[in-house]
Design brief:
Length: about 450
Amino acid sequence: MSTTVSTKSAFSGAPDTMDQISADVLEHIGSRDPEAARILAEEARRQETTLELIASENHVSSTVMHSVGTWMTNKYAEGYPGKRYYGGCTWHDAIEDLARDRAKALFNCAFANVQPHCGANANIAAFMALLKPGDTVLSLPIKSGGHLSHGLKPNFSGTFYNIVDYDLDPETERLDYDAIRAIARECKPRLIICGYSAYSRTIDFAEFRSIADEVGAYLMADIAHIAGLVASGVHPSPFPHAHVVTTTTHKTLRGPRGGLVLSDDEEIAKLVDRKVFPGSQGGPLMHAITGKAIAFGEALTPEFRSYQEQVVANARALAEALVEKGYRLCSGGTDNHLMLVDLRGRDADLTGADAERWLEAAGMIVNKNGIPNDPRPPMVTSGLRLGTPALTTRGLKEPEMVRVADWLDRVMTSKGDEAVCDAVREEIRVFCGDFPLPH
Ligand SMILES: *Cc1c(COP(=O)(O)O)cnc(C)c1O
């Protein structure tokens, strides 16, 4: 049985709400490959008519969107600007230099490698630069808000390195720097990792560096989630504290999907370059690097700072509205762009998996997420992770966060009742018409 719709007539043209360039691109693809164009049009429609609350997602500008579908995709550019293994790289050198220079300006550091294909690849390169297989790494496990590339068993990190966990304080559900220091003294790690996927509080990078210095470890800050906040000064910078900083480019930073490694240390920088290429990747995705250059340019504008301030203000407003309705937030709230909702605070039987499914039926896209010490398994969970970067890109502000909280609560209180989900779905579809995707 196939679920693929494959009739040639199925592509019925670009949605009329779409900006002209995107519509032209879609019509063009549709004239040659209607089957693929139909899928693209459906996905565009899905994004236009639903609310994106996944904390790690965003909507790129149309400039970034179209820049990743260009001539730059046609080139092998193994190596680095001025030192390529293939001819014809003049303009690839130019765009990669532009991306590197803008990344350095954005994060105020001396070195940037813009080639990692994703955040996990940036971490592979950083691990290879700083560690030998078997070395000890101290990190927060995924079940407490860390990332799988920080030491999960089946991941490269958990396979090739000796991972020691630190954890959140069980009472405050926040980082406990004294406890982390005590574990570091005991296990003598070669690398300490800070930076998370589901942690809603400010990270004290200076405190982490003081722990690293005490035990002779490197400090790596993985700012994949908060990179946009950091670039705008809305969250403290990991510089000058971290030896190496890794990030994605597609979360709060609002660029194309990709990774980035930053450092102020010339020796570490040289090692990172070698470990990205040829250590762990072949030819760079030059079309994605083009998108990174443009996204970094956008991030250097005053408008981007205002955007990040609004992201944080919206998260606070959404958090307050949910608390008012009786939901419990892990750590009691948020300092950044995301929050972790403990659904048991509202209803002991609610699971993250049910809520995720019901909310999608009602036009709100979220992800279930384990909460600290979650008794339920990872495919069920007792929590939801909610973030405001994508909603803020569409222009939603504090008053709209109250409406979003209402919709979330109506669906969850009804336990996914079909009539309620349908009604909310329709309200959201109409509402989205007033908040178009970036043009
Ligand atoms: C998202 C994320 C990554 C990995 O990003 P991918 O691009 O999916 O590989 C790495 N670290 C942290 C903390 C993240 O949240």
